[in-house]
Amino acid sequence: MSRVAIAARPAQQADRVENKPAKVEAFVRLFNEMPVGNLVANLTTKVETFEVAGRTFPLTLNDASDAPNCYICCPSGAYIDYAIDETRNFAAHPLLRRALQAFIGACAPLVRASGLDHQVQVNNWLYSTNPMPLLDRQTVAALRAALVARFPDHAILIRSLNEIADPATIAALKAEGFRMLAARQIYIFADRSAAPAMTKNMKLDRKQLGATPFERVGDADFTEADYARAEALYNMLYLEKYTPLNPHYTARYIAEMHRRGIISLAGLRRPGGELVAVTGLFENGGTLTQPIVGYDTSLPLGEGLYRMVMAMGQDHATAQGLFFNMSAGAAGFKRRRGAIAAIEYNAVYAGHLPRRRRMAIRAMETVLALVGIPLLRRFEL
């Protein structure tokens, strides 16, 4: 396991994301002990620990030759393949769908010219959403200098930044030469009061959770068979209902992340039988994300399985006083449950790269700001 270390400096003020070194080490060790493809079936990457100014991060390293690759390590997968796939949301508007597909296709050479698939990514937990610890300019400058020296031909990337959770970090990154590429619209459940306002839909969800014939499954109750079933349920939702471009988390991944204390699990099962719904929760300092959600999509919608596992996440956030980043998708559903929208950005540093790549990244930033963000807001993507 490789490591990059820089002398620590005095601690910063408290923030919502902790990145405990022991948890980072447990995560990195897992991805060094087992082939990455056995854990995330559609992913190629190298994972290591990166330390800078008293902060510890998981770091991923990818070469352009790894593409096509899962979008969590491959910007061309996110900005071209996933974007084209997302136009399925406009099936009822065929002319708009074709126009968007043509626009994305026209932008594809720009994305490829950026060389962003040749990247080193900081704080990549290999989730769709990776909450970032607070960074000031001094830390950003140290981070940039260390990575430019070690990876002189790789773009430096940080995903999952938004103006609600990360305004100071975004300002520090911009001041140190990072470009902000809009990625998607996410939803934040940020009411940390002891009793957050309950919308009508939240009340209905909890009523259904209290009346369901399915049994609740706690974190300590998961068995080997449950891990395999959890993979199947995740696949039903994220790979079959949504898109196979999402990360293919395997039963081995779910089991090892759970056993090593990186995620906690909860779910619902038939009385004395198999799981019908599952969720994986990633708690990092004062922030919660929900990287794994799955349910038996063959069961009637009236069973409310998705509603109930999302309610479990919100209830956990409320009970623990956590800032809950609910990620992207299901926009109306999340808004009706008290979440507010925010644009999520990828921060990119390319000041050390050839001019052609720098210009392509700058053009991407402009196109995404002028066209991408209005589309994301208008259609709640």
TrEMBL record:
Residues 208-335 form the BioF2-like acetyltransferase domain. It comes from the Bacteria. InterPro entries: BioF2-like_GNAT_dom (IPR038740). It comes from Mesorhizobium shonense. This is BioF2-like acetyltransferase domain-containing protein. The lineage of its organism: Bacteria, Pseudomonadati, Pseudomonadota, Alphaproteobacteria, Hyphomicrobiales. Pfam families: Acetyltransf_6 (PF13480).
